Amino acid sequence: MDTLTHGLFGLTIYCAQNREKMTSREKKALLFTAIVASEIPDIDVVASFTETGRIMEQMWHRGLTHSIFLAPIWALLICAISRWLFRIKAWRFFWTALLAVLIHITSDVFNSWGTGLLEPFSSARFTVGTIPIVDPVIWVLFMAGFILSRLLRHQPAHRIFQIAALCMFLHFSVQSAQGLWLEHQMKPDYDQVELSASFIPWHFDLIGKKGNHVEIKSVTLWSEPKLKQTLVSSEQSDLTPLFKKNPKAKVLYEWSPFVVIVDNSRQLGIYDPRFYRNGESFLAEYIHK
């Protein structure tokens, strides 16, 4: 998910807790804990400031920092910082921090980029593809909770945000169930199938590969699949020169579920068809001949 959405998850966690008996300092500590814990797995972006980090960005981003095994360590670290900053016993906020980190990690699994959920014990990328990286539905649900908490003064604000959080969970569940069912139905037609969620709720792009052909179809539960694009991959091409001259291409090849190979008189390259928009994919690596 994008940075804003992760931040809204953190704010929802904060607002959904009863803070009536908390001191001002405790409220600040709780807010700090919820927000920072919701963002901290993305600290891996600092690696992109190094040359090696730029080459390995595909593998390292959402890699070890997004591992479920690191989640308790993140939670303990944030609690320690919160205790030092606000001079309170912040250890009771451990479960808030752990919840926020786990929500970050698991929500990222649901979009096409995926996460290294089991690193360092497995380098496998876990991705469902049923939720877009930028999901306006989450923004709308948070804003609805915020507005209602201001309008319905007679209702406890934390109860309203608990309902908003439940609606977010239901959104993930319903949309993911639809996407996985559509993927299941289309699997027999292809050798490999991947999903990429649209920004429009309950709409998906299904990317299927059979032989050297890749089809991108727009699919929903209530309509027939609509073919958007047919791509041809040069499967017999030798990618050794590409990997030798462009190390990022090898990383992309290993990271993606499958790629489309481009080999013509001008260039040799690969791209991830899940991110194919307007005639090109923004995840692509080439060399000129």
Automatic annotation (TrEMBL):
InterPro entries: Transcription_regulator (IPR053170), YdjM-like (IPR007404). The chain crosses the membrane at residues 69-86, 93-114, 126-148. The keyword Transmembrane applies. One of its GO terms (molecular function) is hydrolase activity. The keyword Protease does not apply. Keywords: Hydrolase, Membrane, Transmembrane, Transmembrane helix. This is Metal-dependent hydrolase.
